[in-house]
Every structure is written in C-alpha cells, then in structure tokens.
C-alpha cells in the first residue's frame, strides 16, 4: 500500500526531530562532562586549546613577565633609603612631571581631533579619502628619529612653520610645547584606528530617532553618539597616553633635553645608564612603570564602569 504524501512528510519530520533531539542530547552530555572535568573550559569543535594556551602563557612569560620581574629584582638591590633618594631627586621628579603632564595633554588633544578625523574618514566620501586614511598610519611606519628630525626642521626658529610662530612669541622647538607636538604626532593613529570600527558600528536609526523626537545636532551628538563611542574613545586615549610616556626618539630632537626644563624620563634613564648607574636607572624605570600601571588601570576601570552602566541601562 502506497503511503500518502502527507503521511510521508509527517514521518520524515518525526525522524528529523528524533535525530535532532538525539544530537542535542549528545551535545549537552558532552558539555556536562566537560564542565564537570574543567569548569573553566567551554566545549569547542576545534581542538588545540591546551597547545594554544601553553604557547600564549610561554610567549607572555618570556616577553613580558620575565623582563618586568628582572627590572624589579634589579631595583631591589637598592636599600629603601637609596631608592627613595633616587626617585625623589628633584631632577627625577621634574622629568616625571614633564613626561606625564605632556603625555596627558597630548592624549587629550588626540582624543578630540582623533574623533574628528575618524568621523570624517568613516561618515563622509570625498576625493583622496583613501590617501588621507593611509596618511594616518604614517607615524607607525616612520622611524621615530626621522619624525623627530622632521618636526625639528619644521618647528625650529628658521623652520617652515616656526619662522611664522616666532614673531608671535610662540616657540615650539626646545620647549615643552615641542614635546607635546611630538607626542601628538606619534599618538594620533591609536585614537583614530580605535574609533573607526566603533563609528562604523553606530546605529544610524538612533540618530534619526533623536532627530524625529526634536533633538538638534548638538543634543544628538552629546546624548546619542558620545555615550556609544565613549568606551572606544577611552581605549584610544589610554593607548595614546601609554605611547606618549614611552616615546623617546621623536622627542629628544625637538625638546632640547635641558635638565629640569625639557628633559623627559626616558632620556634621564638613558643618561643614568651612560653613567653606569644601572640601579638608579632601574629605580626610575620602576617608578614610571608603577605610575603608568596606576593611571592606565584607572582609565580601564572608568571604561569598564561606563560599559557596565550602559549595558545595565539597556
């Protein structure tokens, strides 16, 4: 007897449902077994978790943990009095104030203008846009010494731009302002490249809804766009700030390297090494490292709080 089409479809659907149930039960059983054995490991179809985890830990240990540990171990050779005498030296404190102050100002400038550049490159189409987008990565490709010499040639007293700023009483080269210019130059790509994906993922329907509800452009920007971009903006700010603290090559050419005035901490560490004062150099490096970790940890905590608050409000 030939089965009717309806009955055939019904039997086929039941078979598919039975097979799907069996597969789901098998998957759940494997996940349960995995969770019982290794609660921190999720089931994955692709193997290799143990190998990749081992390589990751080994790589980070060799390149990050061991050098940082060696730095602190070398600094521990100093007594507490010697360490405090080294890090509280007026020249060291002046260089730290200059380094962190100029790095913070340059990161703020990059946060503002990096947002403008990223928004322009993502939201607008204009001639030579791809060329302008490629120029953003130029500080990544240029050696820092080359960028320092270039900035010195442009902003010196007889430079292309410096000769016009000198009559106005604005000196860039051999001043803290020149240090800020160099740090802005090397830190801008970090903000732009961090913000571009976030701007691309923005929901334009929210902007249109705000406009329909009567919000003007400024209100839309402040209440809709900025809250969505704030986590990415803080990330770019932190990366630019960290890059500026460790900058050396482009700064030493335009700063003048005058102690107590335009001497950055990285140069002071190199100076101590040239004087065969390795313990003093490592003490200053530890001070910079701890201060940098504290500031970046604060920025990351603020970023986490903003992200957690925005998720809680949705």
What is this structure's SSE topology?
Elements: H1 5-37, H2 49-75, H3 80-87, H4 90-123, H5 129-135, H6 138-141, H7 144-155, H8 162-165, H9 176-200, H10 204-212, H11 217-245, H12 249-255, H13 265-274, H14 278-313
Helix pairs in contact: 2-14, 4-9, 4-11, 7-9, 7-12, 9-11, 9-12, 10-11, 11-14, 13-14
Task: Give the helices and strands as they follow along the chain.
Answer: HHHHHHHHHHHHHH
What Rg do the Cα atoms give?
Answer: 28 Å
Mean pLDDT: 81
The number of E-state strands comes to 0
Structural class: mainly alpha
CATH architecture group name of the domain at 79-204 and 231-313 = Orthogonal Bundle
Structure, described:
This protein has a domain at about 80-205 and about 230-314: MetI-like (MetI-like fold, Orthogonal Bundle). The model is unreliable at about 1-20 and about 30-35 (pLDDT under 50). With about 325 residues, the protein is mostly helical. The chain has helices at about 5-35, 50-75, 80-85, 90-125, 130-135, 140, 145-155, 160-165, 175-200, 205-210, 215-245, 250-255, 265-275, 280-314. The radius of gyration is 28 Å and the shape is globular.
């Amino acid at each position: 007897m030939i089965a009717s089409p309806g009955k055939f479809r019904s039997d086929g659907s039941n078979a598919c449902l039975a097979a799907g149930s069996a597969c789901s039960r098998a998957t759940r059983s494997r996940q349960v077994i995995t969770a019982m054995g290794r609660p921190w490991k999720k089931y994955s179809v692709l193997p290799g978790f143990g190998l990749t985890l081992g390589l990751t830990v080994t790589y980070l240990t060799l390149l990050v943990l061991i050098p940082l540990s060696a730095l602190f171990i070398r600094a521990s050779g100093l007594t507490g009095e010697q360490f405090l005498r080294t890090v509280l030296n007026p020249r060291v404190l002046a260089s730290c104030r200059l380094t962190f102050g100029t790095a913070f100002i340059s990161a703020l400038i990059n946060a503002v203008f990096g947002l403008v550049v990223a928004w322009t490159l993502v939201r607008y189409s204009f001639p030579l846009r791809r060329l302008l987008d490629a120029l953003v990565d130029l500080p990544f490709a240029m050696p820092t010494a080359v960028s320092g010499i270039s900035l010195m040639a442009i902003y010196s007293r007889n430079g292309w731009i410096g000769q016009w700023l000198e009559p106005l009483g604005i000196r860039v080269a051999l001043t803290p302002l020149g240090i800020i210019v160099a740090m802005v130059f090397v830190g801008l790509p970090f903000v732009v490249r961090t913000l571009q994906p976030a701007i691309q993922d923005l929901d334009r329907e929210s902007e249109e809804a705000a406009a329909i509800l009567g919000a003007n452009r400024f209100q839309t920007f402040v209440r809709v766009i900025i809250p969505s971009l704030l986590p990415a903006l803080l990330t770019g700010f932190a990366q630019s700030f960290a890059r500026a603290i460790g900058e050396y090559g482009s700064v030493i050419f335009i700063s003048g390297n005058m102690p107590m005035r335009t001497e950055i901490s990285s140069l002071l560490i190199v100076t101590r090494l040239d004087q065969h004062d390795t313990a003093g150099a490592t003490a200053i490096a530890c001070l910079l490292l701890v201060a940098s970790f504290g500031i970046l940890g604060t920025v990351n905590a603020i970023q986490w709080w903003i992200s957690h608050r925005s998720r809680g409000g949705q």
